[in-house]
Amino acid sequence: MNVLVTGGVGYIGSHTCVQMIEAGLNPILLDNLHNSKLAVLGRIEKLTGKKPTFYQGDIRDKAFLTSVFEKENIDAVIHFAGLKAVGESVEKPLEYYDNNVNGTLVLVDAMRDAGVHSLIFSSSATVYGDPASVPIREDFPTSATNPYGRSKLMVEECLTDFQKANPDWSITLLRYFNPVGSHKSGEMGEDPQGIPNNLMPFISQVAVGRREFLSVFGDDYPTCDGSGVRDYIHVVDLAEGHLAALDKVGKKAGLHIYNLGTGDGKSVLEMVAAFSKACGKEIAYQIAPRRPGDIAECWADPVKAQQDLGWKATHTLNDMVEDTWRWQSKNPQGY
């Protein structure tokens, strides 16, 4: 099965490609390398023995996408490509709507022209806004507290309308919680360009000496220790969720919506403590003001994905921090 993977050189995309190759699928990677590096392709080859087909270009470029669909006999698309930093989205909303919303519309238009009717979209738990309660089920109301989340929600609404008008399509919306961790080999991991926006790479860069301290944004939330609580999910579990969705509903017409999370919330300070234990050193941190758009707590009810897809997160918190440390200590400057 030939699967076009947009954003395939990125953190989640690259880990998913490794799992796909090991499962006998043929991922065709497409990436503009805005927040990823070509060196990833060599790591994928090292881990799987197969160098994936790669096209460098932008999903907003219809002519480029058309040429890829003409060259490759594509059966389905997994769509990871997009901008993903909450704070940056507040400063650059136009860029987020252009990349995330417009980019997806151009991609779906190219898919329609090529007769490819199966799409798995990389959505986010941010579409639940500030939830009234936890754990969060797929039927909870959606809203957004920042332009990043709003861009994901807009795409979900566009795809929902499109699937209604094109009922032969299979469109799957996977709402991720907080991906962390790395491939167990330490050969692949999260390597953000510039200052990390996510917790785990920031912690690991402090541990390896690249950053002086971690800023913990807010210690006055109504949580166990005052810091924000999130549902951290190992990136390999997340990758396996995409394979399960492709297998179970990728050829089944309809709109399919699933949370991908563990169902277990951990606070920022709990994550810091677990990482300190894994790397054997204290992680320096300072309390900073809350960030605009952040919420107190957020974790998934993952039962629907278990029931429909036969998928469940299996990696523990120790796996998450130990795998991250193995990656960062082996690759202190990233790729």
UniProtKB/TrEMBL annotation:
| InterPro entries recorded | NAD(P)-bd_dom, NAD(P)-bd_dom_sf, UDP_G4E
> Which Pfam family is one of those matched by this entry?
GDP_Man_Dehyd
Q: What enzyme category does the UniProt record give? A: isomerase
**Cellular component GO terms, alphabetical:** cytosol
GO BP annotation list: galactose metabolic process
Reaction catalysed by this enzyme: UDP-alpha-D-glucose = UDP-alpha-D-galactose
Which EC number(s) does the record attach to this protein? Answer: 5.1.3.2
Q: Does the keyword Nucleotide-binding apply?
A: no
Recorded metabolic or biological pathway in which this protein acts: Carbohydrate metabolism; galactose metabolism
Q: Which cofactor does it need?
A: NAD(+)
Q: Name one GO molecular function term.
A: UDP-glucose 4-epimerase activity
- Ranges for domain NAD(P)-binding come to 4-324
Q: Which UniProt keywords apply?
A: Carbohydrate metabolism, Isomerase, NAD
Please report which protein family the annotation says this sequence is part of: Belongs to the NAD(P)-dependent epimerase/dehydratase family.
NCBIfam families given for it?
galE, PRK10675.1
What is known about its subunit structure? Answer: Homodimer.
Question: Could you tell me what this protein is called?
Answer: UDP-glucose 4-epimerase
Per the record, the gene is: galE
